[in-house]
């Protein structure tokens, strides 16, 4: 029998949202001020892309290596690691030590992203009543896009006032304050009584669907996350620079493009999470998101070819509502299939897949932008990446064949 409890406090949801969103703050802030940083440090676009590559490579390795470690650590310890490492990365970026120190800051920020998905998924599984879990995944995963929104608006404005080093310092203070609040608060939310995993009900007259194994679910979600991740961060990291250099936007307006994508991404993740909570199958939703993301990449390509700002904003909207929404589907799929005691390691592998894609995407995009093909070559590669996601999602949809057994 499923334990039914009242609505959990929204302050717990706020902790989950902040834990997911704090670690990416540095990467999004650097992206929003990319043109200024490239000029200030005298680096190339490929070298700038290496900052994101360093961050996501460390995150990918961390998620793969620390998954079992996370399963054995209390929630307070993991939250302290998330916020503490994020604050340290921002603090290092605040020091005018040149490109190498900024690379180190990005590495620390990447390690900080080794733990948020695992610990927040476990908190959902162990402290939040079942009726709210899937819906809350959409909200807490929107923390990444909330971070993108805040950084894309805040960093350019602060950089115009106190420089991008000063903007990073303020981010470090915010992360430190949130660390204290989150670690103090989590102990006030008790664990729920242990409950058996219920069998998935089948509606009367419906055809049963063969349930995939837990191992297959983890591998499939990790592979999809890897491919989608390449396109996501290739776009996120270079979107403001594309707007500034190819369409003549100002630094603040260029940052606004990423902010709008983040704002749309917040709403999209909440919306896709609600659809998942109503029972929509993950493969079908992944197929829809992959098709939309492909259309967005084509719109970016068209915006660069024509110089029409309207096409850029259309591309931003498609990017925010589709590719940025994939994470919530991946995490909801895990929550449906994996026991709470293995959530850290399972989430670690899927997140490692995503961050592996995040690692390759900016590096490849930077190299393409620096080639004779420029941004046109980059957006073409992004479109092909999302077409691969379409093929993967279509395979997963077709694999969910009806069971031959009848009752």
Summarize the structure.
The chain has helices at 10-22, 25-32, 34-41, 45-65, 67-72, 75-94, 99-112, 116-127, 130-141, 143-186, 214-247, 251-277, 282-306, 309-321, 326-337, 343-369, 374-399. It has 407 residues and is mainly α.
CATH architecture label: Up-down Bundle
Strand content: under 5%
| CATH domain class | Mainly Alpha
What gyration radius follows from the Cα positions, in whole Å? 21 Å
Count of DSSP E strands?
Answer: 0
CATH fold description: Growth Hormone, Chain: A
Which residues form runs of ≥5 with pLDDT under 50? 198-210, 403-407
Q: What class, by secondary structure content? A: mainly alpha
The coarse silhouette is: globular
Mean pLDDT: 85
Distance between the termini: 23 Å
> How many helices does DSSP assign?
17
Biggest beta-sheet profile? none
In the CATH hierarchy, what is the superfamily?
MFS general substrate transporter like domains
Order of helices and strands: HHHHHHHHHHHHHHHHH
Protein name: MFS family permease
Keywords: Membrane, Transmembrane, Transmembrane helix
Domain Major facilitator superfamily (MFS) profile: 7-405
Organism: Paeniglutamicibacter kerguelensis
């Amino acid at each position: 029998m499923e334990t039914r409890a009242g609505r959990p406090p929204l302050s717990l949801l706020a902790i989950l949202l902040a834990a997911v969103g704090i670690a990416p703050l540095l990467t999004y802030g650097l992206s929003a001020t990319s043109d200024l940083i490239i000029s200030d440090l005298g680096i190339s676009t490929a070298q700038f892309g290496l900052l994101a590559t360093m961050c996501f490579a460390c995150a990918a390795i961390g998620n793969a290596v620390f998954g079992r470690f996370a399963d054995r650590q209390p929630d307070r310890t993991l939250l302290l690691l998330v916020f503490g490492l994020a604050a340290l990365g921002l603090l290092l970026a605040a020091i005018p030590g040149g490109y190498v120190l900024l690379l180190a800051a990005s590495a620390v920020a990447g390690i900080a992203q080794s733990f948020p998905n695992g610990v927040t998924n476990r908190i959902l599984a162990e402290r939040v009543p079942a009726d709210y879990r899937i819906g809350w995944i959409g909200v807490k995963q929107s923390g990444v896009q909330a971070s993108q929104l805040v950084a894309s608006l805040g960093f350019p404005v602060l950089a115009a006032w106190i420089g991008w080093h000063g903007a990073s310092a303020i981010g470090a203070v915010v992360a430190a304050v949130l660390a204290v609040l989150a670690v103090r608060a989590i102990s006030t939310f008790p664990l729920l009584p242990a409950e058996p995993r219920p069998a998935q009900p089948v509606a009367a007259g419906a055809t049963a669907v063969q349930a995939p194994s837990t191992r297959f679910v983890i591998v499939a979600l990790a592979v999809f996350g890897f491919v989608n991740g390449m396109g996501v961060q290739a776009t996120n990291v270079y979107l403001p620079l594309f707007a500034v250099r190819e369409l003549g936007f100002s630094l603040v307006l260029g940052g606004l493009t990423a902010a709008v994508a983040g704002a749309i991404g917040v709403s999209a993740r909440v919306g896709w999470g609600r659809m998942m909570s109503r029972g929509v199958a993950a493969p079908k939703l992944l197929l829809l998101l992959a098709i939309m993301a492909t259309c967005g990449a084509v719109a970016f390509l068209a915006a660069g070819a024509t110089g029409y700002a309207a096409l850029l904003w259309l591309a931003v909207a498609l990017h925010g509502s589709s590719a940025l929404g994939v994470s919530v589907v991946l995490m909801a799929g895990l929550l449906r299939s994996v026991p709470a005691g293995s959530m850290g390691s399972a989430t670690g592998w899927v997140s490692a897949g995503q961050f592996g894609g995040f690692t390759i995407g900016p590096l490849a995009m930077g190299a393409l932008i620096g080639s004779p093909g420029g941004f046109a070559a980059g957006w073409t590669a992004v479109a092909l990446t999302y077409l691969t996601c379409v093929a993967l999602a279509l395979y997963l949809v077709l694999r969910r064949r009806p069971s031959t057994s009848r009752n």
